[in-house]
Amino acid sequence: MNYSTQTYLYIDATIGRVGAFVLDRLARILNIIRCVPRDIPQAPKCIVISKFMGIGSIVQAFPFLKYLRKRYPTTRILLVTFKDNEVFSQLLSAVDKAYFIDKSTLLSLAVTTFKALRLIKNEKPTITIDLEVYSSFSRILTFLIFSPYRLGFFLINTISRKGIFTHLLYFNRFQHISRVYKNMAYLAGVPKEYVFDNEELTDMLKIPFDSEQEAEKILRGLGVKDKKIIFININASDLCIERRWPADCFSILIKQLLKLQNTAVILIGADKEWEYNQKCIEQINAVTGEIKVHNIAGRSSLPVFLALLKMGDLLVTNDSGPMHLGDLMGCPTVSLWGPGTPQSYAPQNSKHIVIYHSVYCSPCLYMINERPCGGDNICMRSITPQEVFEACVQVLDWRKECVKVK
Question: Is a pLDDT exceeding 50 seen at residue 135?
Fold first, then answer.
C-alpha cells in the first residue's frame, strides 16, 4: 500500500531517528579506528550527493553543483534522490549519474535503497555530502555508503551527528538556502571566489531540442499562442498542503486576470492535480458562465513543461516546485507564502514578487512537525485576491491595459 509523505516523515522521525542515533555511536568507534584525515582531498575520485525532498531544493542547489563541477572537473558526481525527482534529475548536466529510491511503500523503500547502496559503493566514493537537514533516513544512508569523508548539516547541536559526519556545517535558518548550500560547497573544498550568473545556472539543465517545439504546439492547440500567457499553480505537495491559497481566492483572481486585454490563463500541475484544477475551473463557471481557462496539469513531459514556463508572461504560484522551476526558466512570478519562509526559500530576482503576511505562527514549515493551525491556514487566507492581482499587474507592467475591476 502506498503511503503519504506525512507518513514517511513520521516513520523517519521515530524509527529513523533511533536508527541514526545507534549508527552514529557505531560510526564514532569506526572513525577512531580508521583515523580519517581532516583535510578534504584535492582530487576525489567520486562525490555522492544525497538530496531527497523536493525539486525546488534541488534547483536551489544548482550553484552548489556548479561549484563542485568547476572545482573537481574530473571527479564523478553522483546524486541519490527519491524516484519522484527522477525525470528532473536526469536533466542535470552537472551530475554524472543519479540513483533513485522509491518511497511509495516500505518494501520498495527497502529494495531500492539496497540496490542504490550496492551500485554507489561500487563507485568507491571518496566524499558523501548530505544536503538534507532533518532526514534521519538520509543520515543512515550517508553512513552506509562508507565513504571516508562525510559532510552534513547540524541545527541546534552536534550530539547525534558527530559520528556519522566527519565534517559538519551549521544550518542557519535565517540565511537563504542557496547561501547555505554555497557554504557547504566551501566546506567541500570549493574556493570562495567562484561566482556564477543565472544564465550559467540555467545551462545546467539538458533540455531536449524538440521540447520548445512541442511546447509551441501545445500553445497553438489551446489557441493562446499570440496571447499573454498566465500560468497559475493552485497546488502544493502533501509535504505541507497548508501552503495552498484557497481555491475560491484563485477563482476570484482568475476572473480579474481574464479582464486584462489579450490574456490566457493556464492551470498547471502534476497529473494527480488535474482534478483539483478542474474543480477550480468549475467553480468559476458556476458563477460567471463558461470562461476559457485551460487545464494542462500532467499533460506534458517535464522538459516540455520547462519550455512552456520559459514562454510564459507570468506565473502565479504557491510556495512549491513550479515556483522554483519558473524562476529557473526566467518566467516573471508572483509567489504566495504562509507556512514557509520567503526569507530563506523565495527565488531572488527582480522579476519576482513575494506576498507574505507574517501571522504569529508563521513560518511553521520545517520548524515543527504539526501545523499549529490544524489545517486552518490563516496565513494563506489572509492574502487577498486584490493584492495578488495588483502584484501581477506590477510584474507585467500592464496597468494601462487594465479594465476597472469591481
Answer: yes
The architecture that CATH gives domain 5-202 is 3-Layer(aba) Sandwich (3.40)
CA distance 114 to 316: 40
One DSSP character per residue, 175-214 reads S-HHHHHHHHHHHTT--TT----HHHHHTTB---TTHHHH
pLDDT tens profile 244-259: 999 999 999 999 998 8
In one letter, which amino acid is 313?
A: D
DSSP H helices in 223-273? 247-257
- Output the pLDDT for position 403: 41
- 211-401 has the same fold as 5-202: yes
Per the confidence metrics, is the pTM higher than 0.85? yes
CATH of 211-401, one of 3.40.50.2000, 3.40.1380.20, 3.50.50.60, 3.20.20.210: 3.40.50.2000
Domain ranges within the chain, ordered by starting residue = 5-202, 211-401
Rounded CA gap, 345 and 327, in Å? 12
Helix axes 17-34, 136-145, angle to 10 degrees: 30
pLDDT, tens digit (0-9, with 9 covering 90-100), for 193-216: 776 655 566 677 788 889 989 999
3-state secondary structure of 60: helix
Instruction: Examine the pLDDT at 404 and tell me if it is beyond 50.
Output: no
- 202 Cβ neighbours under 8 A, 6+ residues apart: 328, 329, 330
